[in-house]
Amino acid sequence: ARMELKIDRQLTKIDSHWMGLVLEYVGFGGTGVAILKGHEAVTEALDEHEVILQNMMSNRYMGFFEERIITWKTKLSTVHTTIDDWVEVQRQWCSLEAIFIGSEDIRAQLPEDAARFDEVDALFRAQMTDASTTPNPLDACTRQGRAEAFAKALVLLEECNRSLNDYLETKRRKFPRFYFVAAADLIDVLSRGKH
């Protein structure tokens, strides 16, 4: 009975901890998009609680609580996958937004990737508009379609990055001095037509 009480208290503690977690958002430049400000508390809670739940699964007294434990493991696994993809999509979107939205030269040179990025941009903006009204990470990360949306955006962004890097490499081969210029600066130079 003491061991079952301990498991019950741990599950209650996990539940109350996740109900108290809050995601914060901040505007990104002049884009009108509120992006995720920090997620460290969520990551720490995931790491801690996934270990606790794994230990519960190997506890011979967990029988009565098995369904609750499995439910929590499933939720936290979804949050983990979603937050990882979300942070990576956000990072890439923030670095590529000015390039694909703000540079007519890049849009003209890479029309397929510009269209691909436009799809990501629309998807990301829609997800962030919805997410920014959902401060609880459990609710935000388990929202229907969110994990799939970020997974799709990640694939498209990787294609955009690959094409952009190939394009910059052709410019560097043509003008070897560009090898000494950072990618962001090179894009700025190319978009202003100073090559």
Q: What would you say this structure looks like, in words?
A:
This protein has 195 residues and is mainly α. Helices cover 74% and strands 6% of the residues. It is built from eight helices and two strands. Strands 1-2 form a two-stranded antiparallel ribbon. Strand 1 and strand 2 (33-38) form a beta hairpin. Helix 2 (40-57) runs antiparallel to helix 3 and helix 3 (66-102) packs across helix 5. The longest helix is centred in the middle third of the chain and has 37 residues, at 66-102. The relative contact order is 0.12.
- Total number of helical segments? 8
What composes the largest sheet?
A: 2 strands, antiparallel
* Overall outline: elongated
Number of strands: 2
Which residues sit in consecutive blocks of at least 5 with pLDDT less than 50?
Answer: none
Q: Can you write the helix and strand succession as a string?
A: HEEHHHHHHH
Radius of gyration, taken over Cα atoms and rounded to an integer in Å: 22 Å
Average pLDDT, all residues: 89
Strand content: 5-15%
Distance between the termini: 76 Å
- Amount of helix: over 70%
* Strand line-up across the major sheet: 1-2
Q: Structural class, from secondary structure content?
A: mainly alpha
Summarize the structure.
With 195 residues, the protein is mainly alpha-helical.
